[in-house]
Amino acid sequence: MRLSRTARVVLGCVTAAGLAIVYVPLLLVLLNSFNADRSFGWPPSGLTGRWWRAALHSDGAREALLTSLKAGLAATAIALVLGTLAAYAVHRHRFFGRRTVSFLLVLPIALPGIVSGIALNAAFRTVLDPIGIGFGLFTVVVGHATFCVVIVFNNIGARLRRIAPSLAEASADLGARSWQTFRYVTFPAMRSALFAGGLLAFALSFDEIVVTTFTAGPGTRTLPIWIYENLARPHQAPVVNVVAALLILVSVVPVYIAQRLSSDTAGGRL
Amino acid sequence: MRKRKTSAWRSAAAVCALLLTAAGCGSGGGDGKGGHAPDKLGKGEGKVNIIAWAGYAEDGSNDPKVDWVHPFEKKTGCQVNTKTAGTSDEMVSLMKTGQYDTVSASGDATLRLIASGDAAPVNTKLVPHYKDIFPALKQQPFNSKDGRMYGIPHGRGANLLMYRTDKVKPAPDSWRAVFDDSARYAGHVTAYDSPIYIADAALYLMRAKPSLGIKNPYALDQKQLDAAVALLKKQHKAVGEYWSDYQKEITAFKGGDSVIGTTWQVIANLTKAEKAPVKAVLPKEGATGWSDTWMVSAKAEHPNCAYRWLDWIVSPKVNAQVAEYFGEAPSNRKACAETSDPNHCAIFHADDEKYFQRVHFWTTPIKECLDGRKDATCTDYAQWTRAWTEVKG
Amino acid sequence: MPAAPTSGSRLRLTALLAPPLLWLTLAYLGSLAILLLSAFWATDSFTSDVVHTWNTDNFHELLTTPVYRTIALRTLSIAVAVTVIDALLALPMAFCMARVAGRRWRRPLLVAVLTPLWAGYLVKAYAWRVMLGEDGVVGAALAPFGLHGPGYGTTAVVIVLAYLWLPYMILPVYAALERLPERMLEASADLGAGAWRTLRSVVLPAVRPAVLAGSVFTFSLSLGDYLTVQIVGGKTQLLGNVIASQVTLDLPMAAALSAVPVVLIVCYLAAVRRAGALDSL
């Protein structure tokens, strides 16, 4: 498309401005992690490294991070399995109610977190409690996995639409057993979509707070819950800023890797 | 096709089973019995599940120097699991799950827990430190029923009036400043975001409109509630924001987004520590306030550890630690000797009964009027909640 | 092309579909059903215990109390506003990233858009609270122009929500634009269409499903939000807040209130599904 120079400049400016707005609050978080003022007063009253020291010694933050990683990994693993199965069913088969399946899979993420949260809470209480399964990490994982499935489903689905089923057929015609086809043909083609979908699913679980609030048991504290509890505490807010700043810095790595791996698509779909 | 049918059938059956369980479970309690207090304590169960306000059960994970959970675990062998609740309503619903042994309930939750049978009466003889609790906190309408204690008092505080000394002149000494005069600070008034705040309006009306005949801000008949709601709706026009957590209130006062409104002593202290020009006063009408009570669940799976926790948390040293960390008046009079700031009890008026006589502690409003009126029906908390939604519009 | 059903493929289909559908039904749809069913129950007003007597009082109250209608409409308008703003921002940004910027730049730009997703929703919302405050950055930036910051309130909620969900809109739009074959744009130009005409007749129709897909996120995430409102909303209350305040007190009423966003979103999903949005999610 031939765009005039002005149009290109304008578009460039809009994008630059958009990205700038995206990063201003993040920079503020970073700056505030050094702010000597305890309640993020603006402008900062002075700079200090004591919040970083406090954060590095915060067992609460470390444990919460660990819980979040565990919950995210477990939920992502479940979502990868279920999402892939569903994507194969919908994109490689024709059956009655096919579109309903994709509709139903979107529901958990499209319905407000608070609705999903209280629904799961009510269900767990009436069903799991009587059989002795209390609220805990397990219930959090179930909740997260439910809304992560659709992310994997979409990523795999998009990939399946792009690779021809004839590829697998050719493999079969050449005498490959179905596991061989999977191992040497299907899986390599799916790998980056799996990774991108898994990463986004993990990110979603990692930052989820509403559903988590209603499904976590006593002592189960994911990082967002820890942040929520500590932001309400006057002594702790600066430490939360440090944790957030660290997350931003560290997260560039997996996001970048995901982009590299899936160079052919946008690197993940929601 | 047979397989598919089976699986569809199976899932349908599972859904039906779920729905049936849901329909059949949970019987409405409300007989007010709520289990029995034990006569003596047995061996610890090795575990206790706690619902607490942020800052009530610190295990050093937020600040290594603030830790009274690990010493407890070491002393009693009871592993502590804490769930921090943000609001009284959340505490009530968490208690209803039956997964928790004890809760630090405020007065707007206690009566509900007693009535629903979720909280059990407490045998105070099994809590040795109970004898040192300020007498004014014992056998109160918000922590007892029919002469039986339903928990151990933990600490108390008043909902004060805070203002920016540079923006609010002359210095206010009456709640009038946030009600009838609120228009003067339009857009910068703040109020506590909870239905229980209706009592603050009722408290003001007790004096400002004696013809309404309000005797107790938690016992309002429909007409009195309507008057309080009308006052709050008027105030709403001037409100900048409603607050529910520390951090929000501190930043708002510091930045000048809020210049006048309700506060807690601890928030006032912290805001002052941030060098914001604020002052908190107990207005001439008195104030509402909170008094927290550690209650034991009627369904407690670990009652022995729960009782040990109750005694631990009101023991002088720990009570002092909590009171200083959270910023409240301790309930144990011996705690005043243990605070790291020797003036803590004076600042928080811990032993100042005259001060607390002017404080109307949060109590759950119920149909049966708490002020003893027999000829009227009062509005209950559910009605207050709806009224609060109306006020915020 | 999906295979036509044969008995072998049917068996495989069942094996593929059964686990995800069972999970979805048991863990999610069952839960939702329990919740919506409980909307027809009552609550003991004192103890907050659910009383299992079938009635429609909650829905009656929901429909006849004006304040609920006000709140529902306010929530809906905020969700629409956020979606429109995000679409307007995402279209030029995604276009620039996918079509204008050099190939080398695409990946870093995309990383730049995705990274904020990891920063933590609450932390970002609190950062905005600091920025929007009386003496915050936004006020300071606007002061030279004689303008005043929006302060805390509905405008602040729209700004922050639009900020939070922007990546969810950019990502699908970018994907759609990147897939758009260059030769289609060339063909349009060869036929004599100007850039503007190409944009309208070729690009926009091609990204429409993607925008709708992104809007599923921005719209529904805004519709259910209740934390951002608490942080920057001032005295605003949205559906999410009312549901959250009722959950612990009166679950049946909360369930009845939940039915509002559920109905809105199911309708919305059904509408965008026709436009093929769910396939471009």
From TrEMBL, chain A:
The organism's lineage is: Bacteria, Bacillati, Actinomycetota, Actinomycetes, Kitasatosporales
Q: Which InterPro entries match?
A: Bact_Polyamine_Transport (IPR051789), MetI-like (IPR000515), MetI-like_sf (IPR035906)
UniProt-annotated location(s): Cell membrane
Taxonomy, superkingdom: Bacteria
- Per the UniProt record, which residue ranges are transmembrane? 9-31, 71-90, 102-124, 130-153, 193-217, 237-257
Sorted keywords for this record are: Cell membrane, Membrane, Transmembrane, Transmembrane helix, Transport
User: How is this protein annotated for GO cellular component?
Assistant: plasma membrane
Protein name, entry field: Spermidine/putrescine ABC transporter permease
Automatic annotation (TrEMBL), chain B:
Q: Which UniProt keywords apply?
A: Signal
Q: Coiled-coil ranges per the record?
A: none
CDD domains (alphabetical): PBP2_polyamine_1
Q: Which Pfam families match?
A: SBP_bac_8 (PF13416)
Q: Does the keyword rRNA-binding apply?
A: no
- What is the superkingdom listed in this entry's lineage? Bacteria
Signal peptide boundaries: 1-22
Q: What is this protein called?
A: Spermidine/putrescine ABC transporter substrate-binding protein
From TrEMBL, chain C:
Keyword Cell membrane listed? The answer is yes
Q: Which processes are annotated in GO (biological process)? A: transmembrane transport
Enumerate the PROSITE patterns for this protein.
ABC_TM1
**UniProt-annotated location(s):** Cell membrane
Q: Which domain of life is it from?
A: Bacteria
Q: Which InterPro entries match?
A: MetI-like, MetI-like_sf
Which residues span the membrane? 21-42, 71-97, 109-131, 151-177, 210-233, 253-272
Coarse class of the primary localization is membrane
| Family matches, as SUPFAM superfamilies | MetI-like
Tell me the CDD domains matching this sequence: TM_PBP2 (cd06261)
What keywords tag this UniProt record? Answer: Cell membrane, Membrane, Transmembrane, Transmembrane helix, Transport
Q: Which Pfam families match?
A: BPD_transp_1
Q: Which GO cellular component does the record give, naming just one?
A: plasma membrane
**Into which family does the record put it?**
Belongs to the binding-protein-dependent transport system permease family. CysTW subfamily.
Q: What is this protein called?
A: Spermidine/putrescine ABC transporter permease
